[in-house]
Amino acid sequence: xxxxxxDRRTYLGTMNFLIRLILEDNPQAKIALVGHFxxxxxxxxxxxVPAQQMVAxxxxxxxxxxxERLGWSQExxxxxxxxxxxxxxxxxxxxxxxxxxxxTMLDRILADGTHPHSxxxxxxxxxxxxxxxxxxxxxxx
Length: 141
Known about the structure:
By secondary structure, the protein is α+β, with helices and mostly antiparallel strands. Helices cover 40% and strands 21% of the residues. β1 (33-34), α2 (45-59) and β2 form a beta-alpha-beta unit. The longest helix has 17 residues, at 123-139. The radius of gyration is 19 Å and the shape is elongated.
């Protein structure tokens, strides 16, 4: 069905199956969803976010919309220079004048373009943790 049923070969079905199991075991369990960090990248965020919202809506669960709060978008910026991840400094080194480079905001923040922990500085992971911590205190009392 449109809600995914409980077909464990799909995201929706697996989530429905697991949530039902949790609530059957403990009807008082508090369940919340953490939304994906972006909602624009074709074949990833544009598919994941609507599915997460469907699960939250079906089960009336709170969902932290990271995709709205982080600002990690597919908008492009052009800079005259380049950023290179520096494993020694656990961050990035800026080299000006190396020619115009175009980056998406998401690719500029995530070193491998996919994983928040790929930035050796830890800044993306800390940003997510800060937002989640504040949201949990405010929304999940």
